[in-house]
Amino acid sequence: MTASLRVDVVVIGAGFAGIAQAIALREAGVESFVVLERAPRIGGTWRDNTYPGIACDIPSHLYELGAHPWPYWSRAFAPGAEIQAYLERVVTEESLSPHILLNTSMSAAQWDGVAWRITAMRGTGHPDTSASEIIADHLVLACGRLTEPRIPAIAGLGTFRGPLFHSARWDHGALHGDLTGQRIGVVGTGASAIQLVPELARRGADVVLFQRSPAWIVPRGDHPVDEADIRRYADDPSALRAHRERLFAEGEQRFASRSGDENAAAATRDVALDHLAEQVPDPDLRQALTPDYAFGCKRVLLSDDFYPAIASGQVRLEPSALERASGSTLTAASGATYDVDALVLATGFETAEQPYARLVTGDNGETLAEHWSTGMAAVASTLVAGFPNLFVVNGPNASLGHNSSVLISEAQAEFAAALIAERTAAPFAYPDPVRVTQAEEDAASRDVAQRAARTPWVTGGCSNWYVDDRSGRLTLLWPGTVADFRLRLSSARVRSRRLTQNEGAPS
Known about the structure:
Distance between the termini: 39 Å
Shape: globular
Low-confidence stretches: 499-507
Structural class: alpha/beta
Largest sheet: 8 strands, mixed
Helix content: 25-40%
Oligomer: single chain
């Protein structure tokens, strides 16, 4: 192992959350930090996901960092490549590149009683593949939830003869350009599938779509941004701020329909059913596409072209899961068989059990994975008992089903940066690490459970990625508004400052 590097902060991940954290540290006056990114480029989700049709399902002008408004989005819902370019532009404008170690992963992190000792490994393909040690007073995990593709256990999958890959690892060499005559199987009907399936059909492919359960889908309303609006936003920042505030308010209003308010849910459910009826005339096909669980139980999806693709006949809906593969023949749970040339798994990600958690060891020799063995938990979604000076951004209960999760990541990043800055600015006055107790973490989990108790996420009759199957707890989604979350962070910071000042000051 090579010689140690000593910094105030190590941030893991250079997606939206990690970049937000780097900016927040700078704003708080903390300059001694590095960001470890295992890939050769920054971008996270938007670097990894390049499948045909990929775009954001949050309005473009709300899916951006507050300090970097962008007036030039081409569409109401930004294509993935534009978001990736935006993040790279932010890194350049903030001069963050010297702080970012690309192609470098965290292979272990150990709290030694005083600081974090992080083992950093250069990635495969880099000339230097040796490990190095970084000692940091603070560790921020900004690894995201949509990083490790979930590969379902399908009998015989290894016998499939054609191109086979997850939607987040799109093989552009295998499927690109005109796909006329290509028979493509797609597994899953989540957010990725409803974007890529219409695009495959547009390119001429014959698609069979394996649907375990249908999704609630509402109109997307996507369109090119008017050139006059682009000029107005570029010339008048206040106009762009006002537009962003309107989008934020609309998002907060959606919380009612997603969280189980009967009137709001019924009204939006009717919108979804009308959308389905207008675009799918066949009653049997319509029935197969109608969910049998409560509105909001799963992620509500947005699309203008998914139903027309199904109704066109070019996409064949198989209303059951893929059960097994034998060579190029796929067999559904219904018994139906299909011969395909390529198979795409749009099957989501390992969200409940975060892969990074097994690499992080706290002050009692317990790994984060062991600590979270019955589901992720944290005080204010950020601080974990038994893991001093550790901050998790975009982790437990930090996702949203109604508004932009970037807002949550930014709030957490600012919270973490403020606490870190207080310690680094006066280390002798504040020698003790930032800690929370197990009792506080348990109380935070009870608060989430109470908020979620009557919501469709836990009572709606579906299986979703918001809930950890090991405990039945809501561990991914924040069961409140963005305003609620910010208030929660504010209260946690007041408590953390009081603890540091009263218990940490030298006697």
